[in-house]
Amino acid sequence: MLNTTELLAIPALPLIASLIVGLFGWALKEKLSHTITTGSVILSAVLSVHVFTQVLGGASFYGNFWTWMLSDTFVVPVGMMIDQLTAIMMITVTVVSACVHIYTIGYMHGDPGYSRFFSYISGFTFSMLVLVMGNNFFTLFFGWEAVGLVSYLLIGFWFNRESANFAALKAFIVNRVGDFGFLVGILAIWYYFGSFDYREVFAAVPAFVAQGDTLHLFSWEMSAITFICLSLFIGAMGKSGQVPLHVWLPDSMEGPTPISALIHAATMVTAGVFMVARCSPMFEYSETALAAVILVGAVTAWMCATIGLVQNDIKRVIAYSTCSQLGYMFVACGVSAYSVGIFHLMTHAYFKALLFLAAGSVIHAVMAEQDIRKMGQLRKYMPITYITMLIAALALSGVPPFAGFWSKDLIIESVGVRELGWIGDFAYFAVLSGVFMTAFYTFRMFFLTFHNSNRVPEKTRSHLHESPKVITIPLMILAVGAFASGAWGVLGLDIANPEIVNGYFGTSLFVLDVHNPLLAIAEEGHHAWYHFVFSAPFWLAIGGIGLAFAMYFRETDMPGKLATAAKPVYTFLLNKWYWDELYERILMRPAQCLGNILWQKGDLGMIDKGIIHGGVVGGVLAGMTRMRDAQTGYVYHYAFAMVIGVFGALTYLVLKG
């Protein structure tokens, strides 16, 4: 049995720190602000590791602490569910967040909003912990909306920049679209199951599916469980930046680099993957929903990889890799390899946070420049940043023995062994070709930044130096995770061992035997770690790195010639498949046109001119004009009016009496 005080302290510490610094930060010095928030998150991480070790020993917790809402049969308790899935999410969130907090001390030093930023990122950590630790869908929704709100505040942190305000608003609006579907799914769960509690709902799913409830949506007829799962998945698409709700994620780069790392690595964007894995007892009973998860994930993985090939902003290259890697995670969940999807989520958190923070170290050194075409030869000035970013790049590319190899390879194998028709074939092509593209654009960025020719302006070059220890120490900590977390997961935790149900995850994830790809992988012997020498993903990764080396390690005219020869394709990718332009044409312009019509005809024409000026104001004005005309200024007019008044009053009294 886990200690409830310890469990409550894990999310409470970041919350309390966030409130203290948020409310009183104006009176606190920088050192006190970051000490309170960073100390609380580090302590939360230590407690999370302790809980994780207890869960490894077989401990778990499921219980309610108090009732949040109570109305007749509508009961919403506040409780926690601590199992293997929760435990691994807790250490991922808190450890990465602790590294980001330490890094922020150096990166945001001197910023006018220093205390406010620390308040926000601590609140962000609290929100994500509530999301993963809750034991019911209502608590999940609270955490879901809280991370959305805080992300809006963080993306628009530099509110004096118009681009940051636009990006924050874009993220908020796009996520509202997804959250509408998510809310519909949760309300449907209440309607059909009469409860928000995970255990009660999941236990009732098999009987509910056997009952065969269906519903009609326009001309479509679908099972109720499919409707619920698809609605929930729409929410996941928005939160985790999946096509077509991915457009907000690259623009989130307008926020400071530490929050880019936190959003893309361990908090907000991973929420959708976690939710699908948590709801595996429902998704397993809907082939349609699983097919949708595979298809959306595969399209996102492949499409965002193609966009990453031509990006020149160092943070946007990494941002599109996030969209792509999240697609891999959803593909894993879609083929019922939930344990593998969460495994990739964990390994990805370390190397993606490392990539962003290393990019921030570079940006810090080159005076806020983010265009990789204006960098080069930085390895001479920043050896620690260079080595740690190389580790992260190798992990993202899936090169053994780095973390990304273990999890990404399992995803590709899981897709390959499932026979899912054309959707399965497309998904396999997408994740396999994505390996080559990921390796290419990652090392294109790496070589242009640290090798090639030195294109840094002279006035900046004289100030180049390695970042301070408060920035480089978190890089080194995350580099350990980017190197070792994959091998630890497979060889230490047995995450991919089908002989133990879901390996480490046990019963925290549910997979029907007919869906379980890990059983097929085990039968074929592909789980042996040393098989990579014979695998296509390994050679595709090496090929991508090799091509990037040939084109960008030294300055050549090859990239320019290729861009000219394939100009239509290059332009198409550079404009991100024209998603923003498409949304502007089919949504923003019609909405703006409708708004102008309603404003001109409705607000100005009908209300202002018709009702207000023509009716109310016009009537009052006419009445006041008549009253004004009665004020002549002649005494005999007033005397005559008084006589008439007295005569009228006497007549009334006589007639009444």
Please count the helical segments: 26
User: Ends: how far apart?
Assistant: 92 Å
Mean pLDDT figure: 89
User: What are the segments in which pLDDT stays under 50 over at least 5 consecutive residues?
Assistant: none
Give the % helix: over 70%
How would you describe the shape? globular
Structural class: mainly alpha
Can you characterise this structure?
- With 657 residues, the chain is mostly helical.
- It has a domain at 586-656.
- The protein is built from 26 helices and four strands.
- It has helices at residues 4-24, 30-56, 84-107, 114-133, 137-155, 162-193, 198-211, 224-239, 248-251, 257-265, 271-278, 280-283, 287-308, 314-334, 338-365, 383-397, 403-417, 421-450, 458-461, 469-492, 517-524, 536-552, 558-565, 567-574, 579-630, 635-656, and strands spanning 61-71, 74-82, 214-217, 220-223.
- The chain has a two-stranded antiparallel ribbon with strand order 1-2.
- Helix 11 (271-278) runs antiparallel to helix 15.
- It is globular.
- The relative contact order is 0.07.
Key structural traits:
657 residues; globular; mainly alpha; 4 strands
Task: Provide the fold topology.
Layout: H1 4-24, H2 30-56, E1 61-71, E2 74-82, H3 84-107, H4 114-133, H5 137-155, H6 162-193, H7 198-211, E3 214-217, E4 220-223, H8 224-239, H9 248-251, H10 257-265, H11 271-278, H12 280-283, H13 287-308, H14 314-334, H15 338-365, H16 383-397, H17 403-417, H18 421-450, H19 458-461, H20 469-492, H21 517-524, H22 536-552, H23 558-565, H24 567-574, H25 579-630, H26 635-656
